[in-house]
Amino acid sequence: MNTGRLTQDVETLACAANGRAPVEASTASTREEPLSNGTTVVKIGGSTLGSHDTTLEDLVALQREGRTAVVVHGGGKVISEWMEKQGVKPKFVRGLRVTDEQSLDIAVAVLTGLINKTLVASLAAAGGKAMGLSGADGGMIRGVVKDPELGLVGTVTGVDPEPIHAVMRAGYIPVIAPVAVYGLTDSSQTTLLNINADTAAGEVAAAIGAERLVFLTDVEGVYDNSRRVIPRLTERQARGLIGSSVIGGGMIPKLEACLTSLSGGSVAHIVDGRLTRALTETLNGKATGTRIG
Ligand SMILES: Nc1ncnc2c1ncn2[C@@H]1O[C@H](COP(=O)(O)OP(=O)(O)OP(=O)(O)O)[C@@H](O)[C@H]1O
Ligand SMILES: [Mg+2]
What we know:
Carbamate kinase, single chain, two-stranded antiparallel ribbon, alpha/beta, binds magnesium ion, 293 residues, binds adenosine-5'-triphosphate
């Protein structure tokens, strides 16, 4: 598949909507600030979609301006709530959660159903046009089991950008739930895998050649040892931080995903999604949170 041409198509469409001349796809990721003309992948963390959050309004405003965005969402907290409701006790190996078949069923139902459709409906209610997808749709995200001891959790092995481009070309914001398909070539073996939403966002950004990847999370950015926000990290610095004691928990897959997106030519940002207009300000070049790359 000619992904370069597809990226160019999307770029041309976005520019046409803005009445601007299209920029050559090969130079799209190297333009100077503000880098707001290309596609932005936005990862929405389960923790940030609260009452003061303006992310959905920001996304609709972007769409009205003819700027293209792709949403990837998480949902860990809601999955845990539903597991509790269903009486499924979480199991852990080496401190990591194990996804057995019952847990996977709940994760898939909650991510691709409840959370995905709620986001799509909320975007529509805010005046936007969005369409829900999961990594299984169109065979978009492929994966393999990460560690058999952890069960049905996947490592991403490939992303087909075509389903995302098709939805964008039709004028919708793709809203992607993080599941992967495993064993697509042998239908008797096909199964779904739960994947980390940050990882999915990084892989999607790299696959579509996004200009930016923005993580909206529940901290102001990446903190240093003294809990001061680090405004800017090079790829090398980010790599160094991942192996250090400064970074822990949910920040590790985020920084790893930033590195994945950088390899595809994106600039990545980790910003406080609880702040009003966090996404808009980031895209308008305001210094918010941590910029990587
Ligand atoms: N150096 C660091 N700087 C900032 N946050 C850090 C750091 N090290 C660890 N963290 C943790 O990472 C968390 C952000 O990741 P987390 O996975 O909790 O959020 P999310 O991915 O936005 O939401 P969700 O996983 O619910 O979808 C912060 O709340 C913080 O506790
Ligand atoms: Mg997380």
